Amino acid sequence: MLRNALGKACRFLGYTVQYGCIAHCAFEYLGGIVVCSGPSMEPTIQNSDVVFSENLSRHFFCIRKGDIVIVKSPNDPKSNICKRVIGLEGDKVCTSNPSDFLKSHSYVPKGHVWLEGDNLRNSTDSRCYGPVPYGLIRGRICLKIWPLNDFGFLRASPNGHRFLDD
Predict the structure, then answer these.
(1) How much is the pTM?
(2) Residue 79 in contact with residue 73, Cβ under 8 Å?
(3) What percentage of the chain has pLDDT greater than the value 70?
């Protein structure tokens, strides 16, 4: 009887470890559901919106300008932030705030991206902490799940004029 109970316990533990590994790989490499908080991505993503983040793009270096990404915060590695990619390595970006009279520009260094929130007046982003290493990108948001009346693919940036092509 003890042998039977021990066998069941070991099988249960084995299945738990297997399914835990499968779940970890799915969330790490495929994607997951994220609840966004804060005003920096308004009006595209509101506080408490639920989105789906896919992680394959970062592994295959398929992140493009205009994508909204989940990134490890450069200021606090324990938290994630949600921002839009404004510039990739080698791109010229506007580094000043919208209210600044004189505009300043810079180039994104190799292996980095330039991130900004859609709500430029209420966003802590690359204008504050500079270019972000590509390795901090956790995933790309591709779908808004909640609220249901806003279900679907995300809309284009309201700040498209900040994307420079020269």
Answers:
(1) 0.77
(2) yes
(3) 92
Domain ranges of the chain: 32-163
Active site residue 40: yes
The answer to whether residue 13 scores a pLDDT higher than 60 is yes
103 part of the active site: no
Q: Which of 53, 57, 65, 83 is catalytic?
A: 83
SS3 164: coil
Spatial distance between the Cα atoms of 126 and 120, rounded to a whole number of angstroms: 11
- Who contacts 103 (Cβ-Cβ below 8 Å, separation ≥6)? 94, 96
- For residue 46 the two structure tokens come to 């509101």
The CATH code for residues 32-163 is 2.10.109.10
Q: Tell me: the pLDDT tens digits for 24-49?
A: 877 777 788 888 888 888 888 888 88
Q: Where are the alpha helices (DSSP H) in 40-102?
A: 56-59
In the set 40, 57, 123, 126, the catalytic residue is 40
